[in-house]
Amino acid sequence: MAEAVVLNLVLFLPLVGVALLVAVPKESGALVRGVSLAVMVVQLALVAWLYARFDSSVGGLQFETRVPWIADWGVHYQIGLDGYNILLVLMTAFLGPLVVAGAFTAIAKDVKLFYAMVFLVQFAMVGTFLAQDLFLFYVFWETMLIPMFLLIGIWGGERRIYATIKFVLYTAFGSILMLAAVIYLVWSLQKTTGITSFAFSDLVQTQLPLDVQSILLAAFALSFAIKVPMAPLHTWLPDAHVEAPTAGSVILAGVMLKMGTYGFMKLGFPLFPDATQLYTPVLMSLAVLSIVYGACLALVQDDIKKIIAYSSISHLGYVMLGLLSLDLLGIQGAVLQMVSHGLVAGGLFLMVGMIYERCHTRELSAYGGIAKLLPVYSVFFMILTLASVGLPTTSGFTGEFLVLLGAFRAAWPLHTAGNDLPLVLALVAVTGVVLGALYMLRFALGFLYGKARAPHQPIVDLGLREKAILGVIVAAVFALGLFPAEPLKKTELAAKAYRELIVTPRLTARAP
Amino acid sequence: MNTAVVLTAMLPEHLLLLGIVLVIGLEIVGRGRRAALAVAFVAVAAAAAAAAELAVSGFSAAPFAGQFSVDPTTLLVKAMVLAFALPVLLMARDEFAGGEFPALLLSSLYGVCLLQSADSFATVFLGLELMSLPVYVLILLAWRRPQSAEAALKYLVLGGTATAMFLMGASLLYGSGGSLAIDAFPRALAGGDGLARAAVVLVVLSFFLKAAIVPFHAWAPDAYEAASVPVTAYMATIVKAGVLLAALRLFGRAELSSPMLELIAALPLASIVWGNLAAMRQPSLRRMIAYSSIAHAGYLFYALLGDPAGRLQAVAFYLLAYGLMNLLAFAALPAAADDLGRDRLDNLRGLFHRAPFAALMIGVAMLSLAGIPPLPGFVAKFLIFRNVMASGHTTIAVLGLIGSYLGIYFYLRVLQLMFMSPDAVVAGGGGRQRLALGASVACVAAAAVVAVFPGWIIGRF
Lengths: 512, 461
What we know:
In chain A, helix 2 runs antiparallel to helix 3 and helix 11 packs antiparallel against helix 14. Helix content of chain A is 76%, strand content 3%. Chain A has a domain of 232 residues. The two termini of chain A are 42 Å apart. A two-stranded antiparallel ribbon of chain A has the order 1-2. The mean pLDDT of chain A is 92. With 512 residues, chain A is mostly helical. The model of chain B has no long low-confidence stretch (mean pLDDT 90). Chain B has 461 residues and is mostly helical.
């Protein structure tokens, strides 16, 4: 019971943060920053406590709250932790204080509004993960847009208006079709079973003909695939990343992109299993296309932020591949890869922000030999680069390895049965690992080594605050790489449940 | 006819009438020009409270059988629409000093109240005219530029055309069925001779004209811009509500069938699309809101496609969310030396730095009008589209949703100007607007309640 209360507290704490910020006088920037950091740290502590209390031997929801919200429609305020969301909530809460602390010096304009928006986006993201009711999920999902719109639009770079409008219009288009699908789905459930409910647990019971399933899956998938983003729906991402302030990029890459993959895992695939099975070849091909295409684009960028942005497309392709492999290891690898990418890409964006604060350019060609100029910075940078490449002992390795292992394990029986496509796709996906090493090492080589030059000298190495931020991230990256068993145990039952939901064909189950 | 029943059932109307008499009386004795607004405020508040009280106590009666009747639901909606007039009156303090404004506003409100209780075409006609005629004058009341006269004349002529169409339709209906009761309308909808069908089309078109549905919308942007801000707010919220509720009363519980179904779907859809597209290029907030209200009229008429039993609920809740947000936007609009410049979108640039509260309030209003959760506009839109889809009109609902997507850009553009653009050079502002501030606080507080407890409120209607 106490846990359920704490979970609600975790969700609404960012709103308390907003209220506190309103009370703080405008002039005292230090107080604004202190309050913001304190609230985020408290949130993290509460989530960590819940994580420790989470019982991994029990399937389904834990610490659940369920209260009627719009009773006439069967909408409930229903939140809870389960194997699907626990790691993602932990990661979101973990990145919160880092985002706040990372923006201490970078944001000088409208500081109060800035942290208020960070709180709102945090609220919406945690809410999206926790929601167990489709209506509530949609509300949180859309709420995210507005603070993000302002974060990019007010504190972004030169082309921020273009980037932020593109971001919102892109994602809102996916959402509006998803909304139509949500309404249709709930209405179908009501028509066939007489139950009016938005609860995930009820909606997965809906039995729909295959053609309807396909259309609805397409609507959901469009919305989620834009968020992930999967090629060819990714074009908003580089713009948004490049123009966003560091905090915005970290939130985007660290958490928001996972909304898409989480959406597929929690809703998109389990709701429409027969259609998912039917279109797995298409979706898997798109995932592998994202892996390779993202990596190739990252290889030729001169803008540091764009390299990481395109690498995100590539890395999230692995998540999709793992989810679609329907192999237990692949699914768990996908979950781990989500968390790992959140840490690594978040960390890299923070590092780009740090160098940008010093030199005011993101052009790779303007830099060289940073290892000599900023030794401490370079150590952190190299570690995160290697984690991104997937060096064993880092979190990046565990995730990618499990995904590929799962993909092969699932593809082999199909290959012997005469279907070569999954095997070919898995083989192509492996080249993504090589390409990943190529673009990250090209980046690190040009950036860290060679003749020492930076556009703005003299240049000071990392301060204590920056070291602390990066130290925490690097520690987490290694912890997840060296001891993946514990978090994997928390998600194991959810991964099994997810697989069960999809491989049990619902159409034949209905047939007498 | 029982006097007590007449007194009770029409208590809101009587209180408005009392207000009108008092305001005019004050004007005649030449005293308390400032008091007129306060008197009107008290009258409207009392009328709204009376309607709400009657609704809560479950009162229903027909004091003039076949002409006028009330039941708890209509009384509640009446209370809501009357309450919308309170922020308008608060805003008006800065614009209108004399007794003309309150008197005209109260008369118009009387018409709106009549519309919601009308049982015959005669009462509907009375209500429509009583609602519209004062508005023509209200537009001209703040005479500031010649264009206002032109716009008011345009509105008058087109409003007159709508009235003519309505009367023509009503008389054809009488000719075909021999009755002026509003149930004749659903009967004619269900099937009838050519005369009845022509009557139905004329009446529906007259409502489309009054509600500014494409292609009968051209008067709205000019009229909205010509009026001063409180009058625009009044037109966008209360007049629109009056027209829609009257249309709803006529349609009653009738099931729509082809070809009426196509007419009710096609023109509102065109309004949604065109209203949202045209709004993108407007230079002033009032013109933009005019186009936005054209689109919103489209959503509201969409509600007619839904399950007959749920129509009033959907429209009433939508009007609540939509009305609150329009009023909020107008109430928060900062004062300026010249009326035309007050709502130029260019002058809103960098508003967040000059007036953070106003910018936040306008921002909330825009996002809610765009239908972005968790703001009340989302639940309202959801309710309408859910009903349309549950009636089996999936394609129409999806097209409407895509049309609503088109609207997101121009609402965001207002936010972009207020929060992301460098400050505009604005000539010194007007007075201190304490009352308007109160109005916006009241609206946002009400909106917060609607956002947090939508289920409870939907259940009331």
